[in-house]
Design goal:
Layout: E1 5-7, E2 18-23, H1 36-46, E3 58-62, E4 68-73, H2 82-98, E5 103-107, H3 117-128, E6 148-152, H4 158-183, H5 191-205, E7 208-212, H6 214-220, H7 223-229, E8 237-243, E9 249-254, E10 256-260, H8 280-295, E11 300-310, E12 322-324, E13 330-332, H9 340-353, E14 358-363, H10 367-373, E15 378-381, H11 385-398, E16 402-404, H12 409-414, E17 422-423, H13 431-440, E18 449-453, E19 459-461, E20 464-466, H14 471-487
Helix pairs in contact: 2-3, 3-4, 4-8, 7-9, 8-14, 11-14
Length: 488
Protein backbone atom coordinates (compact mmCIF):
# COMPACT_ATOMS: atom_id res chain seq x y z
CA UNK A 1 0.00 0.00 0.00
CA UNK A 2 1.20 3.50 -0.80
CA UNK A 3 0.17 6.53 1.25
CA UNK A 4 0.97 10.16 0.62
CA UNK A 5 3.49 11.58 3.08
CA UNK A 6 2.28 14.49 5.20
CA UNK A 7 4.56 17.11 6.76
CA UNK A 8 4.11 20.44 8.52
CA UNK A 9 6.97 22.76 7.55
CA UNK A 10 6.67 26.43 8.38
CA UNK A 11 5.26 28.49 5.55
CA UNK A 12 8.63 30.10 4.88
CA UNK A 13 10.35 26.71 4.49
CA UNK A 14 8.11 25.18 1.86
CA UNK A 15 10.01 23.28 -0.82
CA UNK A 16 7.11 22.36 -3.11
CA UNK A 17 7.02 23.98 -6.51
CA UNK A 18 3.26 24.46 -6.46
CA UNK A 19 1.58 26.25 -3.59
CA UNK A 20 -2.20 26.19 -3.24
CA UNK A 21 -4.06 28.63 -1.00
CA UNK A 22 -7.81 29.12 -0.43
CA UNK A 23 -9.84 32.32 -0.40
CA UNK A 24 -13.45 33.07 0.46
CA UNK A 25 -15.62 35.36 -1.61
CA UNK A 26 -15.37 38.94 -0.38
CA UNK A 27 -12.20 38.18 1.60
CA UNK A 28 -8.47 38.31 1.09
CA UNK A 29 -6.03 35.38 1.41
CA UNK A 30 -4.03 35.12 4.61
CA UNK A 31 -0.82 37.06 4.04
CA UNK A 32 2.34 37.61 6.04
CA UNK A 33 3.24 33.98 6.72
CA UNK A 34 4.52 32.56 3.45
CA UNK A 35 7.34 34.92 2.65
CA UNK A 36 7.44 38.10 0.60
CA UNK A 37 7.50 36.47 -2.83
CA UNK A 38 4.51 34.18 -2.18
CA UNK A 39 2.54 36.85 -0.33
CA UNK A 40 2.94 39.24 -3.23
CA UNK A 41 1.85 36.55 -5.69
CA UNK A 42 -1.30 35.80 -3.67
CA UNK A 43 -2.08 39.50 -3.49
CA UNK A 44 -1.56 39.82 -7.26
CA UNK A 45 -3.95 36.90 -7.83
CA UNK A 46 -6.75 38.87 -6.18
CA UNK A 47 -6.07 41.78 -8.57
CA UNK A 48 -6.72 39.72 -11.71
CA UNK A 49 -9.65 41.26 -13.61
CA UNK A 50 -12.15 38.41 -13.20
CA UNK A 51 -11.19 37.35 -9.68
CA UNK A 52 -14.18 37.00 -7.32
CA UNK A 53 -13.23 33.88 -5.31
CA UNK A 54 -16.30 32.07 -6.61
CA UNK A 55 -16.42 28.32 -5.95
CA UNK A 56 -14.05 26.57 -8.34
CA UNK A 57 -12.35 29.76 -9.56
CA UNK A 58 -8.54 29.58 -9.72
CA UNK A 59 -6.05 32.40 -10.15
CA UNK A 60 -2.48 31.38 -10.98
CA UNK A 61 0.87 33.17 -11.03
CA UNK A 62 4.27 31.72 -11.98
CA UNK A 63 7.23 32.98 -9.98
CA UNK A 64 10.80 33.56 -11.22
CA UNK A 65 11.92 30.86 -8.78
CA UNK A 66 10.14 28.24 -10.96
CA UNK A 67 7.30 27.95 -8.49
CA UNK A 68 3.59 28.38 -9.12
CA UNK A 69 1.18 30.00 -6.70
CA UNK A 70 -2.52 29.19 -7.02
CA UNK A 71 -5.41 30.91 -5.28
CA UNK A 72 -8.59 28.84 -5.15
CA UNK A 73 -12.00 30.40 -4.66
CA UNK A 74 -14.20 28.69 -2.06
CA UNK A 75 -17.32 30.81 -2.47
CA UNK A 76 -19.08 32.47 0.45
CA UNK A 77 -17.69 31.55 3.85
CA UNK A 78 -21.19 31.14 5.31
CA UNK A 79 -22.00 28.48 2.70
CA UNK A 80 -18.78 26.54 3.21
CA UNK A 81 -18.70 23.34 5.28
CA UNK A 82 -17.19 19.87 5.65
CA UNK A 83 -18.61 18.42 2.43
CA UNK A 84 -17.35 21.37 0.37
CA UNK A 85 -13.97 21.11 2.04
CA UNK A 86 -13.76 17.41 1.11
CA UNK A 87 -14.64 18.23 -2.50
CA UNK A 88 -12.10 21.04 -2.64
CA UNK A 89 -9.31 18.82 -1.33
CA UNK A 90 -10.25 16.19 -3.93
CA UNK A 91 -10.04 18.85 -6.63
CA UNK A 92 -6.61 19.94 -5.45
CA UNK A 93 -5.38 16.35 -5.41
CA UNK A 94 -6.79 15.64 -8.88
CA UNK A 95 -5.10 18.75 -10.27
CA UNK A 96 -1.79 17.71 -8.72
CA UNK A 97 -2.04 14.34 -10.44
CA UNK A 98 -2.87 15.97 -13.77
CA UNK A 99 0.10 18.32 -13.42
CA UNK A 100 2.29 15.35 -12.46
CA UNK A 101 3.35 17.07 -9.24
CA UNK A 102 5.23 14.85 -6.84
CA UNK A 103 4.83 17.38 -4.00
CA UNK A 104 2.53 20.30 -3.27
CA UNK A 105 2.16 22.82 -0.46
CA UNK A 106 -1.41 23.25 0.73
CA UNK A 107 -2.67 26.11 2.87
CA UNK A 108 -5.85 25.15 4.75
CA UNK A 109 -8.68 27.65 5.22
CA UNK A 110 -9.23 29.38 8.54
CA UNK A 111 -12.70 27.90 8.83
CA UNK A 112 -14.53 25.82 11.45
CA UNK A 113 -14.66 22.81 9.06
CA UNK A 114 -10.84 22.63 9.28
CA UNK A 115 -10.55 23.23 13.03
CA UNK A 116 -10.25 20.79 15.94
CA UNK A 117 -9.00 17.23 16.30
CA UNK A 118 -11.79 15.50 14.38
CA UNK A 119 -11.36 17.83 11.39
CA UNK A 120 -7.59 17.44 11.46
CA UNK A 121 -7.81 13.63 11.42
CA UNK A 122 -10.41 13.70 8.65
CA UNK A 123 -8.37 16.06 6.43
CA UNK A 124 -5.02 14.37 6.99
CA UNK A 125 -6.62 10.96 6.37
CA UNK A 126 -8.00 12.16 3.04
CA UNK A 127 -4.63 13.57 2.01
CA UNK A 128 -2.78 10.41 3.09
CA UNK A 129 -5.13 8.25 0.99
CA UNK A 130 -4.81 10.46 -2.08
CA UNK A 131 -2.07 8.21 -3.45
CA UNK A 132 -4.05 5.00 -3.00
CA UNK A 133 -4.29 2.83 -6.11
CA UNK A 134 -5.09 -0.85 -6.49
CA UNK A 135 -2.79 -1.91 -9.30
CA UNK A 136 -1.58 -5.29 -8.05
CA UNK A 137 -2.89 -6.96 -11.19
CA UNK A 138 -1.73 -4.39 -13.77
CA UNK A 139 1.24 -5.11 -15.99
CA UNK A 140 2.35 -1.50 -15.49
CA UNK A 141 1.83 0.56 -12.36
CA UNK A 142 -0.69 3.39 -12.43
CA UNK A 143 0.65 4.87 -9.21
CA UNK A 144 -0.11 8.53 -8.64
CA UNK A 145 2.87 10.88 -8.87
CA UNK A 146 1.82 12.86 -5.77
CA UNK A 147 4.08 11.55 -3.05
CA UNK A 148 3.99 14.29 -0.42
CA UNK A 149 1.83 17.15 0.79
CA UNK A 150 3.24 19.97 2.88
CA UNK A 151 0.33 21.20 5.00
CA UNK A 152 0.17 24.76 6.29
CA UNK A 153 -2.45 25.45 8.94
CA UNK A 154 -3.30 28.57 10.92
CA UNK A 155 -0.96 28.88 13.89
CA UNK A 156 -3.70 28.24 16.46
CA UNK A 157 -4.44 24.87 14.80
CA UNK A 158 -0.83 23.72 14.46
CA UNK A 159 -0.88 21.61 17.62
CA UNK A 160 -4.16 19.91 16.67
CA UNK A 161 -2.80 18.83 13.32
CA UNK A 162 0.54 17.61 14.60
CA UNK A 163 -1.16 15.56 17.31
CA UNK A 164 -3.69 14.17 14.82
CA UNK A 165 -1.10 13.00 12.31
CA UNK A 166 -0.34 9.59 13.83
CA UNK A 167 -4.03 8.81 14.32
CA UNK A 168 -4.85 9.85 10.75
CA UNK A 169 -2.06 7.64 9.41
CA UNK A 170 -3.28 4.65 11.45
CA UNK A 171 -6.81 5.03 10.11
CA UNK A 172 -5.57 5.61 6.56
CA UNK A 173 -3.52 2.40 6.74
CA UNK A 174 -6.56 0.49 7.98
CA UNK A 175 -8.73 1.88 5.19
CA UNK A 176 -6.11 1.20 2.52
CA UNK A 177 -5.75 -2.42 3.65
CA UNK A 178 -9.50 -2.84 3.78
CA UNK A 179 -9.68 -1.55 0.20
CA UNK A 180 -6.90 -3.88 -0.94
CA UNK A 181 -8.73 -6.89 0.50
CA UNK A 182 -12.06 -5.82 -0.97
CA UNK A 183 -10.63 -5.13 -4.43
CA UNK A 184 -8.76 -8.44 -4.71
CA UNK A 185 -10.54 -10.61 -7.30
CA UNK A 186 -12.49 -13.73 -6.28
CA UNK A 187 -10.20 -16.16 -8.08
CA UNK A 188 -7.52 -15.03 -5.60
CA UNK A 189 -9.50 -13.88 -2.56
CA UNK A 190 -11.01 -17.22 -1.59
CA UNK A 191 -11.98 -18.03 2.02
CA UNK A 192 -8.58 -19.70 2.48
CA UNK A 193 -6.77 -16.63 1.10
CA UNK A 194 -8.68 -14.34 3.44
CA UNK A 195 -7.85 -16.63 6.37
CA UNK A 196 -4.18 -16.52 5.38
CA UNK A 197 -4.29 -12.68 5.45
CA UNK A 198 -5.67 -12.92 8.97
CA UNK A 199 -2.85 -15.21 10.03
CA UNK A 200 -0.30 -12.77 8.56
CA UNK A 201 -1.89 -9.89 10.45
CA UNK A 202 -1.78 -11.92 13.64
CA UNK A 203 1.90 -12.78 13.22
CA UNK A 204 2.84 -9.20 12.39
CA UNK A 205 1.00 -7.57 15.30
CA UNK A 206 0.80 -10.24 17.98
CA UNK A 207 -2.85 -11.19 17.69
CA UNK A 208 -4.31 -14.56 18.57
CA UNK A 209 -5.78 -16.23 15.49
CA UNK A 210 -7.96 -19.30 15.17
CA UNK A 211 -9.27 -20.61 11.85
CA UNK A 212 -12.09 -23.15 11.75
CA UNK A 213 -12.31 -25.41 8.71
CA UNK A 214 -15.26 -27.51 7.56
CA UNK A 215 -14.72 -30.31 10.09
CA UNK A 216 -14.46 -27.77 12.92
CA UNK A 217 -17.62 -26.03 11.74
CA UNK A 218 -19.47 -29.33 11.72
CA UNK A 219 -18.34 -30.12 15.25
CA UNK A 220 -19.57 -26.71 16.44
CA UNK A 221 -22.89 -27.10 14.64
CA UNK A 222 -22.51 -24.04 12.44
CA UNK A 223 -25.04 -25.08 9.83
CA UNK A 224 -25.53 -21.62 8.33
CA UNK A 225 -22.03 -21.14 7.00
CA UNK A 226 -21.74 -24.82 6.03
CA UNK A 227 -24.88 -24.52 3.91
CA UNK A 228 -23.76 -21.35 2.13
CA UNK A 229 -20.24 -22.60 1.46
CA UNK A 230 -21.25 -26.17 0.57
CA UNK A 231 -21.60 -25.58 -3.16
CA UNK A 232 -18.09 -24.23 -3.67
CA UNK A 233 -14.79 -25.98 -4.29
CA UNK A 234 -13.31 -23.32 -2.01
CA UNK A 235 -14.38 -24.49 1.42
CA UNK A 236 -15.77 -22.17 4.07
CA UNK A 237 -13.72 -20.85 6.98
CA UNK A 238 -14.54 -19.09 10.23
CA UNK A 239 -11.79 -16.85 11.61
CA UNK A 240 -11.52 -15.59 15.17
CA UNK A 241 -8.93 -12.92 16.05
CA UNK A 242 -8.18 -11.51 19.48
CA UNK A 243 -6.11 -8.49 20.52
CA UNK A 244 -5.66 -6.20 23.51
CA UNK A 245 -5.15 -6.50 27.26
CA UNK A 246 -6.99 -3.47 28.63
CA UNK A 247 -10.28 -1.70 28.28
CA UNK A 248 -13.76 -2.85 27.26
CA UNK A 249 -14.24 -6.05 25.25
CA UNK A 250 -15.64 -5.25 21.80
CA UNK A 251 -16.67 -7.92 19.32
CA UNK A 252 -16.45 -7.10 15.62
CA UNK A 253 -18.30 -9.38 13.21
CA UNK A 254 -17.87 -9.03 9.44
CA UNK A 255 -19.64 -10.75 6.57
CA UNK A 256 -17.07 -12.34 4.26
CA UNK A 257 -18.80 -13.78 1.19
CA UNK A 258 -15.79 -13.83 -1.10
CA UNK A 259 -18.05 -14.16 -4.14
CA UNK A 260 -21.81 -14.35 -4.35
CA UNK A 261 -23.43 -15.87 -7.42
CA UNK A 262 -26.71 -16.11 -5.53
CA UNK A 263 -26.34 -19.90 -5.49
CA UNK A 264 -29.31 -21.87 -6.89
CA UNK A 265 -31.31 -18.60 -6.77
CA UNK A 266 -28.73 -17.24 -9.18
CA UNK A 267 -28.24 -13.53 -9.75
CA UNK A 268 -28.59 -11.78 -13.13
CA UNK A 269 -25.37 -11.61 -15.13
CA UNK A 270 -25.28 -7.79 -15.22
CA UNK A 271 -22.83 -6.40 -12.67
CA UNK A 272 -22.23 -9.80 -11.09
CA UNK A 273 -18.52 -8.96 -11.11
CA UNK A 274 -19.29 -6.58 -8.24
CA UNK A 275 -20.13 -9.53 -6.01
CA UNK A 276 -16.46 -9.76 -5.06
CA UNK A 277 -17.33 -6.80 -2.81
CA UNK A 278 -19.70 -8.98 -0.78
CA UNK A 279 -16.76 -9.59 1.54
CA UNK A 280 -16.42 -5.91 2.45
CA UNK A 281 -17.96 -6.38 5.89
CA UNK A 282 -15.06 -8.65 6.83
CA UNK A 283 -12.64 -6.23 5.15
CA UNK A 284 -13.96 -3.35 7.25
CA UNK A 285 -13.55 -5.35 10.46
CA UNK A 286 -9.96 -6.18 9.52
CA UNK A 287 -9.25 -2.56 8.65
CA UNK A 288 -10.52 -1.51 12.07
CA UNK A 289 -8.25 -4.05 13.76
CA UNK A 290 -5.20 -2.88 11.86
CA UNK A 291 -5.89 0.76 12.72
CA UNK A 292 -6.62 0.00 16.37
CA UNK A 293 -3.43 -2.03 16.76
CA UNK A 294 -1.37 0.64 14.99
CA UNK A 295 -2.72 3.30 17.38
CA UNK A 296 -2.63 0.98 20.43
CA UNK A 297 -6.19 1.84 21.44
CA UNK A 298 -7.22 0.92 24.98
CA UNK A 299 -9.77 -1.73 23.99
CA UNK A 300 -9.85 -5.51 23.74
CA UNK A 301 -11.01 -6.70 20.34
CA UNK A 302 -12.49 -10.04 19.35
CA UNK A 303 -13.14 -10.42 15.65
CA UNK A 304 -15.34 -13.08 14.03
CA UNK A 305 -15.22 -13.47 10.27
CA UNK A 306 -17.44 -16.03 8.50
CA UNK A 307 -15.86 -16.62 5.07
CA UNK A 308 -17.66 -18.48 2.32
CA UNK A 309 -18.20 -18.54 -1.44
CA UNK A 310 -21.83 -18.92 -2.55
CA UNK A 311 -21.82 -21.10 -5.68
CA UNK A 312 -24.39 -23.30 -7.47
CA UNK A 313 -23.43 -26.95 -7.81
CA UNK A 314 -24.70 -30.43 -7.03
CA UNK A 315 -23.60 -29.83 -3.43
CA UNK A 316 -25.17 -26.39 -3.07
CA UNK A 317 -27.95 -25.72 -0.59
CA UNK A 318 -31.44 -25.32 -2.04
CA UNK A 319 -34.61 -23.32 -1.51
CA UNK A 320 -36.68 -25.46 0.83
CA UNK A 321 -33.73 -26.71 2.86
CA UNK A 322 -33.80 -26.26 6.63
CA UNK A 323 -30.49 -25.58 8.35
CA UNK A 324 -29.63 -25.48 12.03
CA UNK A 325 -27.38 -22.64 13.19
CA UNK A 326 -24.91 -22.45 16.07
CA UNK A 327 -27.48 -21.33 18.66
CA UNK A 328 -29.70 -24.31 17.65
CA UNK A 329 -32.30 -22.18 15.88
CA UNK A 330 -33.50 -23.59 12.57
CA UNK A 331 -33.88 -21.61 9.36
CA UNK A 332 -36.01 -22.43 6.34
CA UNK A 333 -34.22 -21.40 3.16
CA UNK A 334 -36.52 -19.54 0.77
CA UNK A 335 -33.80 -17.86 -1.27
CA UNK A 336 -30.17 -18.95 -1.51
CA UNK A 337 -29.25 -15.38 -2.43
CA UNK A 338 -30.11 -14.33 1.13
CA UNK A 339 -26.94 -16.05 2.25
CA UNK A 340 -25.17 -13.37 4.24
CA UNK A 341 -27.56 -13.54 7.15
CA UNK A 342 -26.99 -17.30 7.40
CA UNK A 343 -23.23 -17.09 7.80
CA UNK A 344 -23.62 -14.12 10.16
CA UNK A 345 -26.08 -16.09 12.29
CA UNK A 346 -23.33 -18.54 13.28
CA UNK A 347 -20.75 -15.80 13.81
CA UNK A 348 -23.05 -13.61 15.91
CA UNK A 349 -24.14 -16.52 18.09
CA UNK A 350 -20.51 -17.48 18.71
CA UNK A 351 -19.50 -13.88 19.47
CA UNK A 352 -22.36 -13.38 21.94
CA UNK A 353 -21.57 -16.67 23.67
CA UNK A 354 -18.21 -15.19 24.66
CA UNK A 355 -19.92 -12.24 26.39
CA UNK A 356 -18.44 -9.07 24.88
CA UNK A 357 -19.28 -5.71 26.43
CA UNK A 358 -20.40 -4.38 23.05
CA UNK A 359 -20.63 -5.76 19.54
CA UNK A 360 -20.66 -4.26 16.03
CA UNK A 361 -21.42 -6.25 12.89
CA UNK A 362 -20.72 -5.08 9.33
CA UNK A 363 -22.25 -6.54 6.19
CA UNK A 364 -23.10 -5.71 2.61
CA UNK A 365 -26.41 -7.34 3.44
CA UNK A 366 -29.28 -5.92 1.39
CA UNK A 367 -30.00 -3.98 -1.76
CA UNK A 368 -32.99 -2.69 0.20
CA UNK A 369 -30.68 -0.50 2.30
CA UNK A 370 -29.55 1.14 -0.94
CA UNK A 371 -33.15 1.64 -2.03
CA UNK A 372 -33.69 3.51 1.25
CA UNK A 373 -30.43 5.47 1.47
CA UNK A 374 -28.69 5.21 -1.89
CA UNK A 375 -24.95 4.65 -1.75
CA UNK A 376 -24.39 7.71 0.42
CA UNK A 377 -24.79 6.15 3.88
CA UNK A 378 -24.72 2.98 5.92
CA UNK A 379 -27.89 1.80 7.64
CA UNK A 380 -27.61 1.46 11.41
CA UNK A 381 -29.76 -0.97 13.36
CA UNK A 382 -29.43 -1.26 17.13
CA UNK A 383 -31.72 -1.64 20.14
CA UNK A 384 -29.29 0.48 22.17
CA UNK A 385 -29.76 4.26 22.16
CA UNK A 386 -26.32 4.61 23.74
CA UNK A 387 -24.59 2.71 20.96
CA UNK A 388 -26.64 4.55 18.35
CA UNK A 389 -25.63 7.94 19.74
CA UNK A 390 -21.98 6.93 19.95
CA UNK A 391 -21.82 5.57 16.42
CA UNK A 392 -23.77 8.43 14.85
CA UNK A 393 -21.57 11.01 16.56
CA UNK A 394 -18.42 9.13 15.57
CA UNK A 395 -19.61 8.85 11.98
CA UNK A 396 -20.22 12.59 11.76
CA UNK A 397 -16.79 13.35 13.20
CA UNK A 398 -15.14 10.87 10.84
CA UNK A 399 -16.96 12.21 7.78
CA UNK A 400 -18.84 8.96 7.10
CA UNK A 401 -22.62 9.04 6.79
CA UNK A 402 -24.72 6.71 8.92
CA UNK A 403 -28.49 6.66 9.41
CA UNK A 404 -30.45 4.87 12.14
CA UNK A 405 -33.25 2.55 11.00
CA UNK A 406 -36.12 1.00 13.03
CA UNK A 407 -36.16 -2.42 14.68
CA UNK A 408 -39.87 -2.88 15.30
CA UNK A 409 -41.24 -6.28 16.49
CA UNK A 410 -43.39 -6.59 13.36
CA UNK A 411 -40.22 -7.23 11.36
CA UNK A 412 -39.40 -10.23 13.53
CA UNK A 413 -42.90 -11.62 12.98
CA UNK A 414 -42.31 -11.49 9.22
CA UNK A 415 -39.20 -13.63 9.57
CA UNK A 416 -40.85 -16.55 11.38
CA UNK A 417 -40.67 -19.75 9.35
CA UNK A 418 -43.40 -22.06 8.12
CA UNK A 419 -41.66 -25.30 9.11
CA UNK A 420 -38.68 -23.92 11.03
CA UNK A 421 -38.03 -21.27 13.66
CA UNK A 422 -37.15 -18.70 11.02
CA UNK A 423 -37.01 -18.16 7.28
CA UNK A 424 -34.15 -16.43 5.54
CA UNK A 425 -36.21 -14.10 3.32
CA UNK A 426 -39.09 -11.81 4.22
CA UNK A 427 -41.71 -9.97 2.25
CA UNK A 428 -40.94 -7.46 -0.51
CA UNK A 429 -41.09 -4.30 1.59
CA UNK A 430 -38.69 -3.26 4.33
CA UNK A 431 -36.04 -5.76 3.30
CA UNK A 432 -33.19 -4.09 5.20
CA UNK A 433 -35.31 -4.05 8.36
CA UNK A 434 -36.43 -7.68 8.11
CA UNK A 435 -32.81 -8.73 7.52
CA UNK A 436 -31.79 -6.91 10.70
CA UNK A 437 -34.68 -8.56 12.53
CA UNK A 438 -33.40 -11.96 11.40
CA UNK A 439 -29.94 -11.20 12.77
CA UNK A 440 -31.43 -10.08 16.08
CA UNK A 441 -32.54 -13.66 16.67
CA UNK A 442 -28.92 -14.75 17.05
CA UNK A 443 -27.74 -12.33 19.74
CA UNK A 444 -29.96 -13.65 22.55
CA UNK A 445 -30.67 -11.04 25.23
CA UNK A 446 -27.48 -9.09 24.46
CA UNK A 447 -28.77 -5.57 23.78
CA UNK A 448 -25.43 -3.78 23.36
CA UNK A 449 -25.00 -4.61 19.69
CA UNK A 450 -25.38 -2.92 16.32
CA UNK A 451 -25.79 -4.08 12.74
CA UNK A 452 -24.36 -1.85 10.00
CA UNK A 453 -25.72 -2.61 6.54
CA UNK A 454 -22.98 -1.10 4.37
CA UNK A 455 -24.15 -2.39 0.98
CA UNK A 456 -24.27 1.14 -0.43
CA UNK A 457 -21.14 2.94 0.76
CA UNK A 458 -18.80 -0.08 0.78
CA UNK A 459 -18.16 0.30 -2.95
CA UNK A 460 -17.66 3.38 -5.12
CA UNK A 461 -18.83 3.44 -8.71
CA UNK A 462 -16.44 6.08 -10.13
CA UNK A 463 -13.77 4.89 -10.05
CA UNK A 464 -15.08 1.44 -9.17
CA UNK A 465 -13.58 -0.03 -6.04
CA UNK A 466 -13.85 -0.79 -2.34
CA UNK A 467 -13.97 2.28 -0.09
CA UNK A 468 -13.06 0.93 3.33
CA UNK A 469 -16.25 2.49 4.67
CA UNK A 470 -16.77 2.03 8.40
CA UNK A 471 -13.12 1.90 9.45
CA UNK A 472 -12.88 5.60 10.30
CA UNK A 473 -16.17 5.85 12.19
CA UNK A 474 -15.51 2.68 14.19
CA UNK A 475 -12.00 3.81 15.08
CA UNK A 476 -13.46 7.07 16.40
CA UNK A 477 -16.10 5.13 18.36
CA UNK A 478 -13.49 2.81 19.88
CA UNK A 479 -11.44 5.82 20.89
CA UNK A 480 -14.45 7.16 22.76
CA UNK A 481 -15.02 3.82 24.50
CA UNK A 482 -11.37 3.63 25.55
CA UNK A 483 -11.46 7.16 26.94
CA UNK A 484 -14.68 6.53 28.87
CA UNK A 485 -13.21 3.35 30.38
CA UNK A 486 -10.04 5.16 31.37
CA UNK A 487 -11.98 7.96 33.06
CA UNK A 488 -14.40 5.63 34.86
Amino acid sequence: MQLTRISFPTAKKLSARRLVAPCFEGSLPVLGAAGTEVDKALEDCTKQPDWQAKTGQIARISLPSDRTVELHGLGLEKDFGTEKLVRWLATVIKAAETQRDDRIALFLPAHSSAQGNAAAVRILRQLALSRYRFDDFRSTSDSAPLRAVQVVVPERESRNYRQAASEALAVAEGIAWSRDLGNTPPNVATPSWMAARCRSLAREHGLKCRVLGVSDLRKKGMGGILAVGGGSANSAKMVRLEWGRRGPIVALVGKGVTFDTGGISIKPAADMDEMKYDKCGACTALGVVRAAVRADLGVRLRVYLPLAENMPSSKAYRPGDIVRCYNKKTVEVLNTDAEGRLILADALAWAVEEKPDQMIEYSTLTGASMVALGDFAGALFTPSDRIATGLLTSAEEAGERLWRMPMWPEYVEQMKGNHADLKNAGERWGGACTAAAFLSQFVGDHSAWAHLDIAGPAMASRPKGATGYGVALTFRWLQRLAKEAQEA
